[in-house]
Amino acid sequence: MQDIKNIRIDERLVHGQVATVWLRKLKVGRCIVIDDAAAANDLERLMLRSSTPQDIKLSVLSVEKAAANLLAQKYDGQSVMIVVRSVQTLVALYKAGYRFKEINVGNISGAQKVKRSVFLDKEDYDDFIFLHEQGVAITALMVPGEENFDFMGALAKLKF
Prior knowledge:
alpha/beta, Fructose Permease, two-stranded antiparallel ribbon, 7 helices
């Protein structure tokens, strides 16, 4: 069974915070970046590889390939962290048949502030509501151990 330790939305994908804090704290052996644009861009894949600690395997996959691999249990026996650029990627992954129980929101740029590093547009809002309605728990932690934030309560206060 593959052990998915965390599914994080962070528009920066793999960067200092993910590489030095999240991957180490979670003790993962593989980081899977799911992003169609990054998967299709050699330079971006190279930059992500250089940002990932050498002892951690990195996969940069399209949504379609990631869904197929995850559903086929390709990472069986591995401890994994998934990083995506946007909530839209997670909705596409969910609609492709891969089910998950919890996500963590890190950094998103948009029109309305939810918390210090999370700003959403209407499409983001709608997609978070969709995932919440599917029973997906949503947290918004910058770093492991941070005090939990009432993400859905904050969403309820937005005006779109």
